[in-house]
Specification:
Elements lengths: L2 H19 L9 H19 L2 H29 L21 H5 L1 H15 L2 H17 L3 H10 L11 H4 L4 H13 L3 H11 L6 H23 L23 H48 L7 H15 L7 H28 L7 H9 L6 H14 L4 H29 L5 H4 L6
Helix pairs in contact: 1-11, 1-17, 2-3, 2-11, 2-17, 3-5, 3-11, 5-10, 5-12, 6-7, 7-9, 9-11, 9-17, 10-14, 11-15, 11-17, 12-14, 13-14, 14-15, 15-17, 16-17
């Protein structure tokens, strides 16, 4: 174990201390949740990164995801031709890919995965898997069954996870509501995960396995950070008891496929609109800050990056060091992690791939940790989506949900960084999952 592994280990407790310092009630923290969250992450991390069996399982899952993605692209290739071919790909006619296009390669996979998840729900596979995760969280951490179920669902789906606990939302405590929001923003859904794989697969062949690992690791991290930021001060209705997932099952398989595809289309439209609007507004903002910043740099003889990405990089620089990124790559990685807070993780993963391709990152450890830190919907736009979604399901709790949004975003961000710390602890460059995961650049 090297110095950076120790830094990552210490980083877990620094991040937990940061959450405690921001707590709404420092005297009422349930440390059972914190201890079990750390234990679950470390045990799972050791299994995945060090145990030969765990490594084989996740390499196998990585291969499955890659093959499923190849199937997912069949429809897109039929519609868009060479534009849908992934980088380095070739169609049966021998035509080569024109490069990576998010709109023609990444986004269409969302439709496929949305339909796939709908089919898995129809056959009652996903509810059983989600209940298994919820059972572990409820029994070990002694939290409510409703928030455990929501957290378990968020490992696989996005804002729709709140539907699984719809009957309980109106009666949940503030701490439970914060957990629902935090878990939603600290994890990613399987359909969006496909976009990240497409973005990074050329530079990071085993990225799919890492993202699956990160999504699972982030669930207990979200519970820990949420219960530190907003500790439980009431008695939840479902404390220590399991609850059944609430969802509307379609009447037939094809109805499930159709509904899943339609939900995927809605999600694509939302993502595309968000990226167009946010990236345009940020570019406009950078025009003003860049001009003013150049003037200030000239007056004081300094060299400060006044762009939004640059400023967020300065803000997240200490946290990037905390998770164990090497000094040589810290500022580059901090800008990528920082921009996620505003520009979404889709942009950050794209920029991570670009930094690796352009040689801006020199240590193979850095992209591994960055990929874990980015694996979550912890950004302003997502906060608005989750707050709006929960409010629509429980309008009588509108004031509580709205007031918890920012706290949940902070907790989710810390949870993603905590997950990166776990990856940093076990990174040695010798594990099959880690050592050969990054293409030499």
């Amino acid at each position: 174990m090297g110095i950076y592994n120790l830094v990552s280990f210490a980083g877990i407790f620094i991040l937990l201390g940061t959450a405690w310092a921001l707590s709404a009630n420092r005297k009422n923290v349930n440390f059972r949740v914190i201890i079990w969250a750390i234990a679950l992450q470390l045990v799972f991390g050791a299994f995945v990164f060090l145990a030969p069996a765990g490594t084989k399982v996740f390499l196998y899952l990585n291969d499955i995801v890659v093959k499923v993605l190849a199937s997912a692209s069949a429809g897109a290739e039929f519609l868009f031709g060479r534009l849908a071919l992934p980088p380095g790909g070739r169609n049966p006619q021998g035509e080569e890919s024109l490069g990576f296009f998010l709109a023609f390669q990444g986004l269409p996979t969302i439709i496929f995965f949305s339909s796939l998840m709908s089919v898995l729900y129809f056959y009652n596979i996903m509810p059983r898997v989600i209940k298994a995760f919820a059972y572990v969280f409820t029994r070990l951490m002694r939290i409510s069954g409703a928030e455990s179920l929501s957290t378990g669902a968020n490992i696989f789906v996005g804002v729709e996870s709140a539907l699984t606990i719809k009957p309980f939302l109106g009666r949940m405590t503030r701490s439970e509501l914060c957990t629902v929001l935090t878990a939603g923003m600290a994890t990613v859904s399987s359909n969006i995960m496909a976009v990240y794989v497409y973005s990074l697969q050329a530079e990071f062949p085993t990225i799919a396995g890492h993202l699956i690992s990160a999504s699972i690791l982030s669930a207990p991290a979200a519970l820990a950070m949420s219960k530190l930021v907003v500790p439980e001060d009431s008695v939840p209705e479902t404390l220590g008891t399991g609850v059944e997932p609430h969802y509307e099952r379609e009447d037939g398989l094809f109805e499930a496929i159709i509904n899943g595809a339609e939900n995927g289309v809605k999600l694509i439209i939302g993502i595309a609109a968000l990226l167009i609007a946010v990236l345009g507004l940020v570019a406009l903002l950078d025009l003003f800050t860049g001009g003013a910043g150049s003037y200030i740099n000239g007056i004081f003889g300094i060299n400060v990056d006044w762009s939004l990405k640059g400023m967020l990089g300065y803000l997240f620089y200490p946290f990037t060091l905390i998770i164990g990124v090497s000094l040589d790559d810290a500022y580059t990685v901090s800008k990528i992690i920082g921009e996620r807070a505003v520009l979404t993780e889709v942009v950050s993963y794209r920029d991570l791939a670009g930094a690796m391709r352009d040689g801006l990152i020199t240590d193979p450890r850095s992209p591994v940790l960055a990929s874990y830190a980015l694996c979550g919907f912890a950004h302003v736009a997502s906060m608005a989506i989750f707050v709006g979604g929960l409010t629509a399901l429980a309008p009588e709790r509108k004031r509580d949900i709205a007031s918890l949004g920012l706290r949940a975003l902070v907790a989710a961000t810390l949870a993603c960084l905590m997950t990166a710390c776990v990856a940093g602890i076990f990174y040695t460059g010798q594990s099959a999952l880690l050592g050969a995961s990054v293409v030499s650049y």
